[in-house]
């Protein structure tokens, strides 16, 4: 997966992008093995660091209908802001994955009910 890290008025250094890439790859590929791209942006406003994460799960074939999930968080520490935003994104990914699974299960349950009715 491609991970893009950008910032405004903050120096990210070399350790932070590696940390971000490792964490996103670990979490996103666990939930969606097909995730294509993640963008992380940091912005300092006052004494807080704002973190925004956007991810494409790669489940759509056309460019217009790609699923883009995003989350934001803020904290005094850049790592904490990223971790909070990532936790929110993981929750969204789990819900999104559950919706995809539920859609397919409904058809399966309906088919099972029809099979049971035909045997009765």
How would you describe what is shown here?
The chain has helices at residues 15-31, 78-119; strands at 2-8, 37-45, 48-56, 68-75. It is built from two helices and four strands, in the order βαβββα. Strand 2 (37-45) and strand 3 form a beta hairpin. It has one domain (2-119): Ribosome hibernation promotion factor-like (Double Stranded RNA Binding Domain, 2-Layer Sandwich), CATH 3.30.160.
Secondary structure layout:
Blueprint: E1 2-8, H1 15-31, E2 37-45, E3 48-56, E4 68-75, H2 78-119
List keywords for this structure.
120 residues; alpha+beta; Double Stranded RNA Binding Domain; four-stranded mixed beta sheet; 2 helices; 49% helix; 28% strand
Offer a concise description of the structure.
Helix content is 49%, strand content 28%. By secondary structure, it is an alpha+beta fold.
Per CATH, the class reads Alpha Beta
Oligomer: single chain
Number of helical runs? Answer: 2
Q: Considering the protein shown, what is the CATH homologous superfamily?
A: Ribosome hibernation promotion factor-like
Second-tier CATH architecture: 2-Layer Sandwich
Radius of gyration: 19 Å
Side by side, the strands of the main sheet go: 1-2-3-4
Task: Tell me how many strands there are.
Answer: 4
Proportion of residues in helical segments = 40-55%
Structural class label: alpha+beta
Morphology call: elongated
Largest sheet: 4 strands, mixed
Order of helices and strands: EHEEEH
The mean pLDDT is 79
Terminal CA distance reads 50 Å
The name CATH uses for the topology is Double Stranded RNA Binding Domain
Low-pLDDT stretches: none
């Amino acid at each position: 997966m491609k991970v893009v890290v950008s910032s405004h008025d903050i120096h990210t250094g070399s350790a932070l992008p590696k940390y971000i890439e490792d964490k996103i790859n670990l979490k996103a590929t666990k939930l969606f093995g097909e995730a294509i791209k993640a963008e992380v942006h940091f912005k300092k406003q006052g004494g807080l660091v704002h973190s925004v994460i956007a991810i494409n799960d790669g489940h759509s074939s056309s460019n217009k209908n790609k699923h883009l999930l995003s989350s934001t968080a803020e904290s005094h520490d850049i790592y904490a802001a990223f971790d909070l935003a990532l936790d929110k994104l993981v929750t969204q990914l789990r819900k999104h994955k559950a919706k995809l699974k539920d859609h397919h299960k409904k058809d399966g349950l309906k088919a099972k009910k029809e099979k049971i009715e035909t045997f009765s």
